[in-house]
Amino acid sequence: MNQQWYQEDRSDVLIVGAGPTGLVLACDLARRGVSALVVERSPELFRGSRGKGVQPRTLEVFDDLGVVEEVLRGGGRAPMGMTWQGGVRAGEYRMFEDVEPTEDAPYTGPWLLPQWRTQRILLDRLRAWGGDVVFGVELTGLTQDAESVTATLIPAGGGSPVSVRAGYAVAADGGRSTVRRLAGIKMTGERVDPAPMLVADVVIPTLDRGNWHIFPPAEGGTGFAALCPLPHTREFQFVAQPAPVGGEVTAEEVRSLVAKFTHIPAEEITEVLWASDFTVNAALADRFRDGRVFLAGDAAHIHSPAGGQGLNTSVQDAYNLGWKLAAVLRDGAPEALLDTYEEERLPNAAAMLGLSTRIHRGEERRGAATRQLGLDQRDSSLTREIRAGLAEGALTAGDRAPDGKRDGLRLFDLYRGPHFTLLAVDTPLPEQLPTLPGLRTARTGAYEAYGRGLYLVRPDGYIAWAGPGGDALEASAADLRAWASRFAQPARAGV
């Protein structure tokens, strides 16, 4: 193991886990100049396809991080579903509702991308920003005081423990989180389905890749299976329920399950690249913060895979936390800003758990809610709307800031990067601007998706504040300047 990783006395942030959650957070911090030590117990990146559905809102996050083109190249749309009965094709159906891209919402989905490829893209991006991951390192202890956290780390294969310090620690280490246990945070939840499931990546050269193959139970029977072709690979993701749970799943057990649930003989599965079994639970951490320790991703919420919400909600946990940590560590924002991470993300995760459970039980279909573009921060203490008389359905503070192109300006290009943006729509910009580090401003003509007014867009793409322009412009701007002080303290005179 490279011994250089622990020689610095202190990092800004310790991130435990190099899954999508930890990598997105590390990328977001790296582009903001925040030093993060990312440690991962495994010797390499996760090699399975598990979280393969990337929702439109997550594609927007990837756009902001500058990796969406690679994500789009490496993935593909969900193919037509094909049901089978008794080894005979029984009929086609759309797995997901067809949604066309629009000016304000250019990405549709879910976009199928094996999780291993998502993580490789993110790690490459992190390294391009000067960051990296230390593999083969396990967390065994964690304490904190008023100024920092101290972690005990040990090489996963054995060796002498090392003590490292950081300003904050983030648990991105999955549903069995060591960080969560050491922080003493409990989870509350339920068993969603008594029947265990298996997911595996397999190679079946004889099976066509033009369909997502579904194998419902025979009449009067139980259980089901599915084989989804993974774009730009030789692989299918195989899902089966029920499946044996406990111990390491062998390749022969996977072949036997394929043969049991489908018409495909075991010998036609030429490779089993990865496999995992699990029980379907839904559980939520009682809190997402304990002092200088934060929970994100599966460390904070576990759920059914139905609806493809897990990886996406986890990415957005990291996206919410990253800019807030940077604001406190680099821009002088009040420490209280970090309290809004739990305030905003815990209710969102609770709603996601409910949605995933209902979809799993057949009580709700996949639809607009699973695409996550309608998620908002309207109830957040960071949100302020001062326009009166808005029409029903109008864009308001707390909503996701839509894309669009006006006067030669693409809004997502304007928002991309670690900054706040003040957008004036069909009104001038105020003469006195709020004091926010790196604030970007723009003015555009009328755009129906927004409506006339001023919009302060947060670094994570939500509208923090909205107010009227026109005759009320200067009064509106004064309110904005006062409101913006919660995000970063004004510079002192002479500094």
What's the gist of this structure?
With 495 residues, this protein is of the alpha/beta class. It is built from 11 helices and 26 strands.
Top keywords for this entry?
3 domains, FAD/NAD(P)-binding domain, eight-stranded mixed β-sheet, Glutaredoxin, 25% helix, alpha/beta, 28% strand, 495 residues
Description:
The strands form five sheets. Strands 1, 2, 8, 9, 10, 11, 17 and 18 form an eight-stranded mixed beta sheet that branches. The chain has an eight-stranded mixed beta sheet with strand order 6-5-13-14-15-12-16-19, sandwiched between helices. It is built from eleven helices and 26 strands. Helix 1 packs parallel to helix 7. The protein is 25% helix and 28% strand. Strand 21 (405-406) and strand 22 (409-410) form a beta hairpin. The protein is of the alpha/beta class and 495 residues long. It has helices spanning 20-30, 56-64, 68-74, 115-128, 178-183, 251-261, 310-330, 339-360, 368-371, 411-415, 473-484, and strands at residues 10-16, 36-40, 53-54, 76-77, 80-85, 88-93, 111-112, 133-135, 137-144, 149-155, 162-171, 187-203, 211-215, 224-229, 236-241, 271-285, 289-290, 293-295, 301-302, 384-385, 405-406, 409-410, 421-425, 440-444, 453-457, 463-467. It folds into three domains: 3-79 and 98-188 and 282-371, 3-Layer(bba) Sandwich (FAD/NAD(P)-binding domain), CATH 3.50.50.60; 192-279, 2-Layer Sandwich (Alpha-Beta Plaits), CATH 3.30.70.2450; 384-484, Glutaredoxin. One of its GO terms (molecular function) is monooxygenase activity. Its cofactor is FAD. Pfam families: FAD_binding_3, Rng_hyd_C. It comes from Streptomyces flavotricini. This is FAD-dependent monooxygenase.
